[in-house]
Amino acid sequence: MLNKVKRHLFYRHKFDSLKVNKKKLTPKRLTFNESDTKPPTALEIIW
Question: Does residue 6 contact residue 12 with C-beta atoms inside 8 Å?
Fold first, then answer.
């Protein structure tokens, strides 16, 4: 039972982090498409 709860929390956490990554990536990708010469590190700083 406890294992089930742990697993559920783990997957929820993974899903939440995925959602956050998606939110962060969308504007990043747009910026990256606008200027392909910029390295990803520069985009990281922008965000």
Answer: no
> 46, 25 in Cβ contact below 8 A?
no
- What tens digit of pLDDT does each residue of 32-42 get? 555 555 555 55
Which conformational region is residue 41 in: left (phi greater than 0), alpha (psi within -120 to 50 degrees), or beta? alpha
Q: Record the tokens describing residue 26, joined without a space.
A: 């969308």
Q: Is the pTM of this model over 0.85?
A: no
Q: For 16-28, what is the mean pLDDT? A: 58
The phi, psi pair for 33, rounded to 5°, reads -65, -35
Map out the domains of the chain as residue ranges: 2-46
**CA geometry: angle 20, 25, 15, nearest 5 deg:** 30
